[in-house]
């Protein structure tokens, strides 16, 4: 156990379970929690408890929400004919920050990855297909990451969706703003060439 008191050691251990947090970072966070006054510490603990007990998946898009339906799905000004399919709730936040997208989302909560034992049945695929039952949805945008798993998931979903008469598109992965062509990887360069638009 070392020099730390048992409750402190337990706190360090819990913080170190978080992805990207090593022993050193976990130790720093634990000491910061100890430095809080009692009210702050209880508020912090309550925030964790509330996040776990009050947040669940939206019955429509599967994004995290504290209501039955999330504010995006409930929004009357959102274009319900376009669904943007993403891997995680974090991706929804990224798109919303751009303020460019006016449609709705569908969160898969993962990607198909046979290596990690993740199949389509562990994702929210059937919920997505159920949303395409009517004729309201005209386009589904595959916005999974440009990784092997992301591409495989996009291709798998496209095969399921196309026969339903719904247009399936893929995000265009271009060059970063301020980037230099000579340093771009061949896949990105090829993609940006294929997805070129008219000027």
Automatic annotation (TrEMBL):
It comes from the Bacteria. One of its GO terms (biological process) is DNA recombination. The keyword Transferase does not apply. One of its GO terms (molecular function) is DNA binding. A zinc finger (C4-type) spans 58-73. Residues 81-176 form the Toprim domain. Keywords: DNA damage, DNA recombination, DNA repair, Metal-binding, Zinc, Zinc-finger. Coiled coil: none annotated. InterPro entries: DNA_Rcmb_RecR, Rcmb_RecR, Rcmb_RecR_Znf, TOPRIM_dom, TOPRIM_RecR. The keyword Protein transport does not apply. May play a role in DNA repair. It seems to be involved in an RecBC-independent recombinational process of DNA repair. It may act with RecF and RecO. NCBIfam families: recR (TIGR00615). Belongs to the RecR family. This is Recombination protein RecR. It comes from Anaerofilum hominis. The gene is recR.
């Amino acid at each position: 156990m070392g020099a730390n008191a048992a409750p402190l050691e337990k706190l360090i251990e819990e913080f170190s379970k978080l992805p990207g947090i090593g022993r050193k970072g976990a130790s720093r966070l634990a000491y910061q929690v100890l430095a809080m006054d009692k009210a702050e510490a209880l508020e912090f603990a309550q925030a964790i408890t509330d996040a776990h007990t009050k947040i669940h998946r939206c019955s429509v898009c599967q994004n995290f929400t504290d209501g039955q339906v999330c504010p995006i799905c409930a929004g009357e000004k959102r274009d319900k004919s376009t669904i943007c399919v993403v891997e995680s709730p974090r991706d929804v936040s990224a798109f919303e920050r751009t303020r460019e997208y006016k449609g709705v989302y569908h969160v898969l909560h993962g990607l198909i990855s046979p290596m990690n034992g993740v199949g389509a049945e562990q994702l929210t695929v059937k919920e997505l297909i159920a949303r395409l039952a009517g004729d309201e949805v005209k386009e589904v945008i595959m916005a999974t990451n440009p990784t092997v798993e992301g591409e495989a998931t996009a291709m798998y979903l496209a095969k399921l969706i196309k026969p339903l008469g719904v247009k399936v598109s893929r995000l265009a992965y271009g060059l970063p703003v301020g980037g230099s062509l000579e340093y771009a990887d061949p896949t990105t360069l090829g993609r940006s060439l294929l997805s070129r638009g008219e000027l």
